[in-house]
Amino acid sequence: MALLTADWNPLGREAYYRKFEVYTMGWIDQVNLQDLKVNVAPSGGPIAVVRDDTKLTPVQTSGKPIIFIFSPSGELKSTIKWSGGKIVEINWSSSEELLCIQDDGSVSAYDIFGNYQNSFQMGQEAREMKIIDARTFSSSTGTGLVVLTTNFRFFVVNNIKDPRIRRFPDIPGVNIAPSCWTAIHGDDRQTRVIVAKEKDIYLLDYSEQHVTQKIPEISHHHLSIVAMAVSPCGKLVALLTDAGVIWIGSFDFRRKFCEHDAQCMLPAVQLVWCGSGAVVLNLGSVLLVLSPNRDNFTLILDSTSHVCPEVDGLRIITNSSHEFLQKVPLPNQEIFRIGSMSPGAILVEASREFQKRSHRAEEYIRLVKNQLEQAVIQCIQAAGNEWQPGVQKMLLRAAQLGKSFLFDKVDSELFVGMCQTLRILNAVRNYKIALPLTFQQYEQLGKTGLLNRLILRRQYSIAIQICQYLQMSEADGIPRVLTEWACYKIKHGLGKLDAEQLASEISAKLGTGSKVSYSSIALKAIECKQEKLAIRLLDFEHRASEQIPLLLKLGQEPQALAKAVESGDPNLIYYVLVVMKETYSADKFYMTIRHYPSVNALYAKLCRTIQMGSLEQIYEQEDNFNAQAILSVKDSYRAQKLENRSAMLTTAVKQYRQAKAEIAASLTEDQLKLLKSQSSYESKFGCPVIDVSLNDTLKLLMRRRDIKETEEMVKKFKVPERRLWWLKVTTFAEIGDWAELEKLSRLKKSPIGYEPFVDVCLQYNNVTEAQRYLPKVEEHLSIKYYVKAKMYTEAAQIAFQRKDTEALHYVQSRCSSNRDAVDMINSLIAKLANPSESQNKR
Predict the structure, then answer these.
(1) Of residues 391 and 692, which shows the higher confidence score?
(2) Could you tell me the strand order of the sheet in which 286-290 lies?
(3) Distance between CA atoms of 65 and 842, rounded to whole angstroms?
(4) How many helices (H) and strands (E) does the chain have?
(5) Over the stretch 464-517, which tens digit does the pLDDT of each residue have?
(6) Are 38 and 425 in contact (CB under 8 A)?
(7) Sign of the alpha-carbon torsion through 176, 177, 182, 186
(8) Comparison of pLDDT for 632 and 124, the residue scoring more
(9) Using an 8 Å Cβ cutoff, are 199 and 224 in contact?
(10) Looking at the predicted structure, is the pLDDT value of residue 135 above 80?
């Protein structure tokens, strides 16, 4: 226990801070931080250094600076030989992109291997007036950037991925340079700048274009404020005066927590927060740690240092080491504090005795019997906060011992999850990977964020192992990592392997049946102008919806059409057809699709639906005369003028003849004759006749009693006799010409029978006229028609004469409301049932 607390420093009565070594730097004897500008990426990110122009140092190269990017363990990752304008500041984004801010307002982004990513401008005014300082900050949408120009105006971009420039209001007062300033992004998603102008402090808000002056209560004499820092929680602010006094108060500057004279003779290098519980003043090789309660202690380092605040502590970079300063977490403090009697501390002692096979382990367990659950949770939480694997194992063994007495009262997921997390953290903390994440930083970053960091470092192997270990989903897991590996392979394999070799190597690694998105890889190949490779890679893509758009983008329309047909998805076929129609000439288009009958049919359907193209051209290519004729007939009825319609129908007759469809040709000729006749009738009678049927045309002539024209139409169109009789019967009934109807019935025997005569008479409520034709109705239908005419007595008598009991019951069912008829029918039924009784009565 004593060894574990040897590096603890008390800060007040309750808080302890510890500093432990993360890595011994690989740049020993190569880098002197005293001569360099240093910037460290958050959450265990890489370190960027560049020569400090404000210091006189001997150089062996040209005047252009060289930016060196190191891993957190001091391994050189890349160099950027700067060829642009003057660099004002270098900063890291939350996605580990190095932002190089130039004095002309240009911002260039590089990855950790020094590869150029993108750039943007901070606006015309920043370009003209020049930039003298810049700060990055974490926003709700990513990483933001604030710059200060030579005319002392601030400009902000809240998200460097979507740079929208906004200007802060001007600082009031004398036009002199700010002595210090910082940018913050609050919980209300608003960015503000705190500016110190000598003694005066101003809060700038661009959303309201408002400036608020803040007056902190500083009792010590001072001329200006030279440094400031806002706590990670955003509730506290620390100020450093030119007299070496540190002031800590609330963010609104209304409340003072402490004021401490640091008595520093040397100018301060940095003023930062270590978590939200202490302020650290970096004086180069000395760190002063101060709490808001004015408690403090000093750390002496072996060389000049640079400190980087983290969410849960402070990274300390020196010429020889990479260390981490943090407040000792409460579970660890309760377990390892000297003389601690907390449940967790006693459980750890019990575990140690158990490892020695001592009976004292049982005594310790009895001491915490009622608090065993709390002790187990303390040990699990403390294990996550420890850096050394040996200490982690000691705490987890203690937790495991305690769990064995609880019988599943503690959630096993808590223990298993911590074991998994520590195994992952210990793996990525290795100096070769150099990702020194604490447990709290990992919780904030998440599994997907960790994978993103590993992919950026090209650590694909361990990324895949972590995906397998955590059983991550396909969207975030192995397929995504393999896709990123393949994209990297394409980008860095140019000129070394030909397209076929590269595609074979990628497919061999990824597999053809895998769930990896080959379309994403092919898209990367297109970006690298490797079209042959992209086409080859798309052969392995099993999702046609992803494959076909890229084939079309690459100009591989025939291949895209073949894949669409193979998929059997009509929507994909339509999509390819639309693209081909726009890019191909008409002849080439029709010659291409004629090889696929299903595509031809779908294109014809598409043309009919949205009239995208000419169906006639398709049918001409295929010599489909029958389809051409049908199209001509349909087009004829869209024509407004009769002459155009007749011409189209004439064409249809010829096309039917070519298709050897004689019946269709004959019917079309008849339609032409009918149109001509209807045209003459329309001008003769002065009423619309065109587009009505032959039957309706004949009925029109009969209504007008134009017997001569009617007979000519019958002969011309060879109207069958039965149809002609039907038309006459219905027409005479419609116009109420009952005399002509009777005359027609006497002309000769009706070829359609006399039932239609009865029907039309009843239809127009002429029962008297219907009675003329009832005796002529067919014998097997006579009863039905007498009932239809409501002549129930006559119908019953006919049924009785035929001795048809079933027919009598039918008549009775239809006249149930007529009591006399019902009684009469009942008597007839009785007579048929007892014929001997009726004879005796006689």
Answers:
(1) 391
(2) 270-274, 278-282, 286-290, 296-300
(3) 142
(4) 33, 29
(5) 999 999 988 877 788 888 888 888 888 877 667 778 888 888 888 887 656 778
(6) no
(7) positive
(8) 124
(9) yes
(10) yes
Question: Taking the CB of residue 374, how many other CB atoms lie within 10 A of it?
Answer: 16
- b/e code 484-504 from CB counts within 10 Å (16+ = b): bbbbebbeebeeeeebeebbe
Who contacts 797 (Cβ-Cβ below 8 Å, separation ≥6)?
Answer: none
Fill in the amino acid letter for 631. Answer: L
With residue 18 as reference, give the H or E element that holds it: strand 15-24
- The torsion angle over the Cα atoms of residues 697, 700, 705 and 709, rounded to 10 degrees, is -20
Listed as own residue / partner, the contacts of 394-401 with beta carbons closer than 8 Å and 24 or more positions apart are 394/348, 394/351, 394/352, 395/335, 395/348, 396/422, 397/351, 397/355, 398/344, 398/347, 398/348, 398/350, 398/351, 399/347, 401/347, 401/350, 401/351, 401/354, 401/361, 401/365
3-state helix, strand, coil in the chain (%, to 5): 45, 20, 35
Q: Is 108 helix (H, G, I), strand (E, B) or coil?
A: strand
Rounded Cα gap, residues 170 and 786, in angstroms: 107
Q: Which two tokens stand for residue 197?
A: 């102008």
For residue 642, give every residue at least 6 positions away whose Cβ sits within 8 Å of its Cβ, in sequence order, or none.
Answer: 675, 679, 690
Tell me how crowded residue 134 is: count the other CB atoms within 10 A of its CB: 23
Which residue in 145, 154, 93 sits closest to 126, CA to CA?
154
Q: Which of 121, 202, 140 is nearest to 168 (CA)?
A: 202
Q: Which residues contact 178 (CB under 8 A, 6 or more apart)?
A: 148, 152, 171, 195, 196, 197
Do 656 and 664 form a contact (C-beta atoms < 8 A)?
Answer: yes
Asked whether the beta carbons of 347 and 402 are under 8 A apart, the reply is yes
Q: CA–CA separation, 637 vs 644, rounded Å?
A: 9
- Determine the Cα–Cα distance for residues 706 and 701; give it in Å rounded to an integer: 5
Distance CA 832, CA 719 (A): 49
- Binned at pLDDT 50, 70 and 90, residue 617 comes out as low
Residue 227, token pair as written in the block = 């440094």
pTM of the model: 0.71
| Mean of pLDDT values over 607-625 | 62
Pairing relation of β-strands 15-24 and 321-327? Answer: antiparallel
Six-digit token pair at 564? 């669409």
Q: How many residues does the chain have?
A: 842
Q: What angle do CA 407, 379, 432 make, to 5 degrees?
A: 120
Angle at alpha carbon of residue 319, lines to 315 and 321, rounded to 5°: 50
Tokens of 96: 């580990």
Coil, helix or strand at residue 554: coil
Is residue 781 within 8 A of residue 810, CB to CB? The reply is: no
Per-residue tokens: 656: 């039917």
